[in-house]
Design goal:
Elements (H helix, E strand, L loop, with lengths): L7 E3 L9 E3 L24 H5 L5 E2 L2 H7 L8 E4 L3 E8 L13 E8 L6 H12 L10 E7 L2 E7 L4 E2 H6 L10 H19 L5 E2 L8 E3 L5 E3 L6 E2 L8 E2 L3 E3 L5 H6 L1 E2 L1 H17 L15 H9 L19 H14 L10 H17 L3 H10 L1 H14 L1
Parallel strand pairs: 1-2, 3-7
Antiparallel strand pairs: 2-15, 4-5, 5-6, 6-8, 7-8, 9-11, 10-13, 11-12, 14-16
Helix pairs in contact: 5-7, 5-10, 7-9, 9-10
InterPro entries: Kinase-like_dom_sf, Plant_Ser_Thr_Prot_Kinase, Prot_kinase_dom, Protein_kinase_ATP_BS, Ser-Thr/Tyr_kinase_cat_dom, Ser/Thr_kinase_AS
GO cellular component, one term: plasma membrane
GO molecular function: ATP binding; protein serine/threonine kinase activity
């Protein structure tokens, strides 16, 4: 499945770059709408009820051990605080282990027994993905709960994570094109819009590039629901919770108060959209002084059409129009507004990205964009210098 999970640690006032964090106070959620409903909405259920889901297969530990060739190191797809994810194969009829290269390909996530809050997150994943169905959510096939063993079995996502495509350098990971980046952003937005819909009302607390997985056609699917929470009900405006997530993606009001709403997710989406546009991580201490925090550094340039090129990944030169870049940057700026009420809802984000994709398909504005880039050669050269410094 290509998951790259970062380590989760306790935190008070500061945290390590790229790490998940959890505060020492309280325990989490809100919403908007769009996209057709593919689910039965989650309701509070006991552990027994969750594990009896008719939609999930209960695997034996031995079956998964055989399917992954005894969890061989060369089968590892990703690893982190939760544990490791292994590639495996099962027979499409019997669901028993199959020879590598035959049957159904799986991604098997095995809980590290020392994992922080492991069982609770494992159960949350089974609860949500056992009930929620949407093209932009990764499919949970089943689970294993046997003695001390806890595993989750997903569809295999051959494209790996968005994180790898954006930030890894090397011959295997070629830079994603502008059009593919917009396609991935739209798919991830549709997944969030579905979660926020009135029928579902789920807040996905860990929206980030490593949790956006890609299939062979670059369709994006959200994964890792261990931190998800039901949204507020009745006249409540938020859900109070301990602060959890990944450093660099948390909305300022959530970090300050522990009050979780759908607008908290939208801030995280804005951070990811900014990473998509820039090809830079949200926090990177290797960048020049003053540029370590992507949001703080990029924000002043997003609203200025003449300075957007300082933010856009220079590997994308010639692939987009200036108008398209401006619209995408403006959307990112709205999503990362400090005031949550100024952020759009996910339906609006989906609509904006759909319109952007439609305009990309016409291809009618590229020559104008190229002229604008020539006039902004100074900005582009600055961007090139900054990128080479950070590598």
């Amino acid at each position: 499945m290509g998951i790259c999970l970062s380590a989760r640690i306790k935190v008070e006032s500061s945290v390590n770059t790229g790490s998940k964090f959890v505060s020492n106070d309280g325990d989490l959620s809100s919403t908007s709408s769009k996209v057709s409903s593919f689910s039965a909405p989650p309701t509070p259920r006991s552990e027994g009820e969750i594990l009896k889901s008719p939609n999930l297969k209960s695997f034996s530990y031995n079956d998964l051990k055989l399917a992954t060739r005894n969890f061989r190191p060369d089968s590892v797809l990703g690893e982190g605080g939760f544990g490791s994810v292994f590639k495996g194969w099962i027979d499409e009829n019997s669901f028993t282990a199959a020879k590598p290269g035959s049957g159904i390909v799986l991604a098997v996530k095995r809980l590290n027994q020392e994992s922080f809050q492991g069982h609770r997150e494992w159960l949350a994943e089974v609860n949500y993905l056992g009930q929620l169905y949407h093209p932009n959510l990764v499919k949970l096939i089943g689970y294993c709960l046997e003695d001390e063993h806890r595993l989750l079995v997903y569809e295999f996502m051959p494209g790996g994570s968005l994180e790898n495509h954006l930030f890894r350098r090397g011959s295997y990971f070629q830079p994603l094109s502008w059009n593919l980046r917009m396609k991935v952003a739209l798919g991830a937005a549709k997944g969030l819009a579905f979660l926020h819909s009135a029928e579902t009302k789920v807040i996905y607390r860990d929206f980030k590039t490593s949790n956006i997985l890609l299939d062979s056609n670059y369709n994006a699917k959200l994964s890792d629901f261990g931190l998800a929470k039901d949204g507020p009900t009745g006249d409540k405006s938020h859900v109070s919770t301990r602060v959890m997530g990944t450093y660099g993606y948390g909305a300022p009001e959530y970090l300050a108060t522990g009050h979780l709403t759908a607008k908290s997710n939208i801030y995280s989406f804005g951070v990811v959209l900014l990473e998509i546009l820039s090809g830079q991580r949200t926090v990177d201490k290797n960048r020049p002084s003053g540029e370590h925090n992507l949001v703080e550094w990029a924000k002043p340039f997003l609203a200025d059409k003449g300075k957007i090129l300082r933010v856009i990944d220079n590997r994308l030169e010639g692939q987009y129009s200036m108008d398209g870049a401006h619209k995408a940057a403006t959307l990112a700026a709205r999503c990362i507004s400090t005031e949550s009420k100024l952020r759009p809802n996910m339906d609006e984000v989906v609509t904006a990205l759909e319109q952007l994709q439609d305009s990309n398909a016409t291809g009618g504005t590229q020559s104008n964009g190229q002229r604008m880039r020539r006039r902004s050669a100074d900005d582009a050269s600055k961007n090139q210098a900054r990128s080479s410094t950070s590598r």
